[in-house]
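To assess whether the prediction recovers the assembly geometry, we first specified each molecular entity separately, as shown.
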Amino acid sequence: MSAGASFWEMDELRLITGAMVILGGATTLLVVMPYLLLENVRPPTALKPYTSEQLAGRRSYIANGCVYCHSQQPRDMKQAPDAKRGWGRASVAGDYAYDTPHLLGTMRTGPDLMNIGARQPSKDWHLGHLYQPRAYTPGSIMPSYPYLFELRKGQPKPGETIVNLPPALANPGEVVVAKPEALALVSYLLSLDRTYPALAEEKR
Amino acid sequence: MDFTVSLLLGTFLLSVAALFAFIWSMSKGLFGDGTAAATQIFAPNELGTVEDPAATSAQKGGLQQAVRMGAGSGRGMAAVDTEARASADRSTSLVVGVCFTLAVVWLVLASLAGLISSVKMHAPDWWVQYDWLTFGRIRPIHLNLVAYGWCSLAGIGVAIWLIPRLLKTELVGAKYALIGGALWSIGVLAGTVAIATGHSDGLEWLEFPWQIDLLLVVGGGLVGFPLWLTLMRRRVEHLYVSVWYIGAGLLWFPILFLIANWPGLHFGVQQAAMNWWYGHNVLALWFTPIGLAAAYYFIPKVLGKPIYSYNLSLLGFWSLAFFYSQVGGHHLIGGPVPSWLITISIVQSMMMVIPVFAVAVNQHLTVLGNFRALIYSPTLRFVVLGAMMYTAASVQGSLESLRAVNTVTHFTHYTVAHAHLGLYGFFTMVMFGSIYFIMPRVMSWEWPYPKLIALHFWLVLIGFAIYFIWLSIGGWLQGLAMLDEKTPFMQSVALTLPYLRARSIGGGLMTLGHLIFAVHFFAMGWKFGPRRLGAALLGPALFSPQLARGVAA
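The predicted structure of the complete assembly is given in tokenized form:
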């Protein structure tokens, strides 16, 4: 071959230009276009913005990595029986109007939590379940979170929230006090309720 | 949806047109025969001469014999070429040594974090009293230490070391890479502390807070600097395949990472789409290019034989860049994102067969007929195994993007096993092989205990086989259980337990292998072991006395 004469011969300029054009194309397709299409999605009227306590709970959900085992995106009945498990209808973009950072998740080591507030509305259940999941769901492999609680002898102080544990778990004379982080987390979980109907024009 | 249809059609037609343009120009001979470019990594008269500084003298003799049966014999390099290569290697030894040392430290920490996460999956009440050790923190710590600690720093080290060898000159601007690598490592440390203390950004692969991300953006940019400076002084006519991959990877990463972490820019579902544009591109446009660059260099270099087809590697490079950069949406199949986005990603995931085929043919046909060389070359053993797992991981990835398969595997441990086939089976194995080749050149010292290399190899191979096979089966069964509405959800949890335990055993063996690798690495750093310098020296003129003795022995 004649030295360096090939039409496709790679040089620095071609490498840089080609690499940037391709990255630009992929970014336009997968980042810019979704941005333009989704920036005008309005929140459904039935969806309330999070309160400051719920937002604190959401930060706790992120800090403790709940997203690594729980998704927040029920699938359509055509694909999976999520609705029959009580996880709710297939979610639409508007359902996430207040969700930044997004917490869609990629794993279902545990169940989907998009509508956990509607499915399990008991604050006591959630507090106790965070303290010891296996007392409520036999066979669960969710970690227990003792560091969100305080174990103390004697009576609770005014304003403190006591966790009402099942008798088998409770030690006589000892109380389990929920720390503010646990209370915020539960208030976020209880707020997860997208059982309102998805708007027809929002359907995928 | 006219828009969707036209977009899909456009993408498809563009892909097919590009493919035909390529085939047409190939048939017209527009590429030339590519021989000159493919042999660019060899010195004159070097073809047919093996090189593996990780091999003992005896192994090297066996290696040379194994290869000679297949290829022509080398007549030996000129002394001036040997000296030029030695000075090219010297110009990178400090910065590469620093990068590898940091990488090995991150590898050990990352392995321990991974093992703890794995055990916690089947022992959920173990070590729960500390918040920083909870599963939801130690698992992302594992991922980030692997990705940005071990893989990135090992990859940067390999890339920097390859640059002067590929351009046949000395590295220019090593200090930028040194500063860049240091900033990067400080970023990894700070980011890990941020996750441990509950300051994660909450996005998978993007957990580090944006203030810390700046360190990786600037550090990553600085690391690329020496490449561009050295390119201006290159003494080669053609840019070898590995240069394209390294150059593009070093350009792509800082841009990807900057866009993905831009504070306040992304929102809701758009952020989810961006998350997987990044999550897949960090593999496609950062780790894969570096891993392939290393494989494209070491396989032919160890064997002393050029790659099978230079033109095929050109097709492989551009089609990888084009298709792989658009596959991220397949992580959101069944999710609340526009369906055209998912469909494009599935189409491009299937198109990935083209670059994977190109790379596979090229690398495997180079090895074909020389499999006996794997017995003698520690480098080749790791790199060829890694290249095979690249093919396997890619084909598996394409299949996983199909809706029917994805419906079962998404949200399960199957995906975790697949991710490890790519980043461990392929990338990490190639990095191990590369480090075994490079370190003797960096230290001018032979690996002190060659048996430890073999032990490392078998531990990680067996450990990873256990990990991958059992976790894939468990994940698939988990997916089937979740899809069956009559099976209670808890059943899908219970059935995975034996497989999760098997994963811990496999992961334990892998971690043990890494500890042995680390001990060996530091033993070499302190120049332990018998004083054997033969294999670390360069060129047949210098090592042939040992070679002759090795063959005779």
